[in-house]
Amino acid sequence: MIRSLLLSLLLLFAASASALPKASLVSGGIAVLPLEPDQGKPEFRFRGKPVLITHDDNDKPVAVVGLPLNLKPGEYHIEGSYGGRKQRVKKFFTVRDKQYTTQRITIKDKRKVNPLKQDIDRILREKKRKQKAANSWNDEEPDTDFLVPVKGIMTGSYGRRRIFNGQPKRPHSGMDIAADKGVPVLAPADGVVVESGDFFFSGNVIYIHHGEGLVSMYAHLDERDVKIGDHVKKGQVIGKVGATGRVTGPHLHWSVGLNGTWVDPSLFVDKP
After folding, report:
1. Of 79, 95, 111, which marks where a domain is finished?
2. β-strand 167-168 against 184-186: which pairing, if any?
3. Please, which of 61, 162, 210, 253 could form a disulfide with 191 given CB 3.0 to 4.6 Å?
């Protein structure tokens, strides 16, 4: 009886571990494209960047493609091959239009809206580090069935057009989850810490690469409990919620990236 129960639990875990993110063919969304099985290892790119290849619950290969927030509606494709063959294959999909809402925010620290001249060099250095982390790559197939990294209330959704102190700024590249300072932040899946530091806008920040270009980012932390190079496990505490950087109060900013572009994190979890 006990053996049977344990086996059932293991099978349940195995099924959930292979869960794919939800497809959403809009700017900032995700394309989940079935590939041909038994044709050799698939290798595909979207707009010049390699895309994540994983497997569905039936162990068939699929491409999981991040769609940039500035992508215009229309027909697009990934291109690649199977088993290193010279023959090129294209998989087409159509992206629909989506209108995101606008959010007006008042920041007390005006320097975080209009940085001083001496801040610019720091911001540019940090931008290069962020880009490098977001474009991380290795060939390990990741777990795409993410945990929600912190318990709280979603206060800022992905894609919102943001106006800080009356000035239009870049759209929101992640999900904001309000929680008390000090609440633990968990790794949503196994991965390697590829960046960590105290950044001008993001405050205390951590980047985790989960494999094949799937990257997650955690900003405004009060504490960072992991360092660059650390291997983290799904559900491991990586830091604490805080109010560092450009914020109005304690919360976690959580971003998820695919093939070098930030996408909607809610597509990776059942209940954002």
Report:
1. 95
2. unpaired
3. 210
How far is the C-alpha of 193 from the C-alpha of 13, rounded, in Å?
Answer: 25
Contact 79, 43 (CB under 8 A): no
Residue 254 has pLDDT above 90, yes or no: yes
DSSP state of 111: G
* Alpha-carbon distances, residue 222 vs 55, 70, 154, 199, 265 (angstroms): 37, 31, 18, 12, 22
Q: Express each pLDDT in 120-163 by its tens digit.
A: 999 999 999 999 999 999 999 999 999 999 999 988 789 888 88
pLDDT the model gives residue 245: 95
Number of domains in the chain: 2
- Output the pTM of the full model: 0.89
Cα dihedral: 234, 159, 222, 152 (round 10): -70
Claim to verify: residue 25 and residue 117 sit in the same structural domain: no
What amino acid is encoded at 2 in this protein?
Answer: I
Q: Could you read off the pLDDT of 3-15 as tens digits, one per residue? A: 443 333 333 333 3
CA dist 188 and 186 (Å) reads: 6
Domain of residue 158, residue span = 102-268
- Does residue 167 share a domain with residue 76? no
Given 32, 63, 95, the domain boundary residue is 95
Q: Nearest 5°: CA angle at 207, between 123 and 226?
A: 110
Residues 166 and 77 in one domain: no
**219 in Cβ contact with 245 (< 8 Å):** yes
Domain shared by 110 and 89, yes or no: no
